Amino acid sequence: MADKKTIYMDNASTTRVREEVLDAMLPFFREDYGNPDSIHAMGRPGRDAVKVARAHIADLIGAKPEEIYFTSGGSEADNWAIKSAVFGPHAKGKHVIVSSIEHHAIINMCEYLEKVGIEVTYLPVDKYGIVSPETVEAAIRPDTAIISVMTANNEIGTIEPIREIGAVARKHNVLFHTDAVQAYGQIDIDVTRDNIDLLSTSAHKLGGPKGIGFLYIRNGVKLDPLIHGGEQERGIRGGTTNVPGAVGFGKAAELAKVDMKERADKEIALRDRLINRVLTEIPYSSLNGHPTQRLPGNANLRFAFIEGESLLMSMNMAGICVSTGSACASGSLDPSHVLLAIGLKHEEAHGSLRFTVSAETTIEDVDYTVDTLKSVVERLRSMSPLYEDFIKEQKKKQEA
Amino acid sequence: MYDGVYSDKVIDHFTNPRNVGEIENPDGVGTVGNAKCGDIMRIYLDIDPETKVIRDCKFKTFGCGAAVASSSMATEMVKGKTIYEALEVTNKAVMEALDGLPQVKIHCSLLAEEAIHAALWDYAEKNNIKIEGLRKPKKDVHDEE
Q1: pLDDT at res. A328
Q2: CB of A268 within 8 Å of any CB in chain B?
Q3: Which member of A130, A160, B58, B114 lies 3.0 to 4.6 Å from B21 by CB, making a disulfide possible if both were Cys?
Q4: CB–CB of B33/B46 below 8 Å?
């Protein structure tokens, strides 16, 4: 086991920090460790570096540097956007519209908001996980404060029509927020073209460090702080600036802009090889999400008659790191809300696995993964009462 | 479940499960759990009509690592026992034999106990006998669908 190679197919969970990112961060721990808000000389290097970082980060989505507000990550940015739209002096209304496949940072927050008097509409999605702009428009009410639809889904990789949804929001003068944690640096986003008012991201999904993200707030949009404190981030996000984090994020964004197309092409080729091999070589397997309208690195597959945690465990034993939407892996009894929202039956949702490749993944990794999967699926099916019943019924049908 | 959370015994029984399979024309068969929760267990029994000893026991399980390991361990434990002694194979006994299960997986060992009870119940009904202390299985795959 010790000398077995680890194949990391879970890049949607987090990515390896890029080498240049780490190099850019290191000086700000031991040498230029000053607080960027200090007036003295030690404050200067960090302040300058964060300024450069902010510019790179903004540039990746066609934003202005002053529209980027650093946070501790995507969850904080999501919480900030939605809570500030419904609470406080700048509250816009008491009704929130979200898709039913949002990340837990949105879904669980909305369930909390409902307990304190906010009304939430959870929009349905089609079988691919796509939210239609018409459904969004139909849900808008006079007291709608904000619409939040993710740029791309973290589980099934579906890319949402955010430009059209943003246009609907703008037409009705409602704030539009998008959780771009999975999409930022992976696919082309332009806040102006895509009609975005607020956008959340996290650095560690694109080769940056954990613990830093940002909320993009379009100039002119008034938002109260979620974290009250000092005058950092133009006075609306307290807390000493995470200088190494911001610098690392800036470098990751700078690199992501340069090689986005090249990375995407490579990941799409790997992803499609994995998907095609699985669908042709493993019977009773299917793809979750949209065949083409999906994140470059995401392959979410389901295998009938077997359960995801035992699949994941078996893959893990072979050195392959993947993730599952099965409840059994998380400790709750319900499988992924995303898989149920696209219309899967419980047992189908339980038998789903997510593979997310990176530009560092090789064809050999993909092939080893598929080869391992084939034997694992076969083994688990040989133990499955559901498969046994299915085969017996097939036989009965043939005999009849 | 997280890497390192399961005991070595659980990993062993998941990786090399004992008694996987079917018994043709079994004397007793029980299926419990439901797909909604992600666990279905089926246990087959081959019982000596004279001595009432469980001569063979096989299982099939759709479920997580703990569910597979619990059914594997349970089949090992009931083999060679009489249908009356088999009631001693409780979820607690299965759990102990596996060197414990994570809190959120305790229901898997319960399911294993229920699967055995369901198979015994099936045998008792077919043969018109009463097994002292055995109640009608409450969890059935068909009840909850």
Answers
A1: 59
A2: no
A3: B58
A4: no
A328 among known catalytic residues: yes
Q: Identify the domain containing residue A385 by its residue range.
A: 7-12+260-399
Question: Are residue A42 and residue A146 in the same domain, yes or no?
Answer: yes
Pairs of CB atoms within 8 A across A/B? 77
Span of A147-156, A200-209, B1-10, B14-23 with lowest mean pLDDT? B1-10
For residue A363, give every residue at least 6 positions away whose Cβ sits within 8 Å of its Cβ, in sequence order, or none: A270, A273
What would the mean pLDDT of A150-156 be, rounded to a whole number?
97
For residue A1, tell me if it sits in a domain.
Answer: no
Domain count for chain B: 1
Same domain, A105 and A228: yes
Domain contains A2: no
**What pLDDT digit, counting tens, does each position of A13-31 carry?**
999 999 999 999 999 999 9
- The CATH code of the domain that includes B94 is 3.90.1010.10
Cross-chain residue pair B61–A329, CB shorter than 8 Å: no
Residues from chain B contacting residue A347 (CB–CB below 8 Å): 35-36, 38, 62
Query: For the whole model, what pTM was predicted?
Result: 0.94
In sequence order, what E strands does A180-240 have? 198-202, 213-217
Quick one: pLDDT at residue A1? 45
Closest alpha carbon to A155 in A361, A316, A335, A398: A335
Q: Which of B1, B5, B35, B37 is catalytic?
A: B37
Domain C-terminal end among A214, A233, A256: A256
Q: Which structural domain range is residue B111 located in? A: 8-127
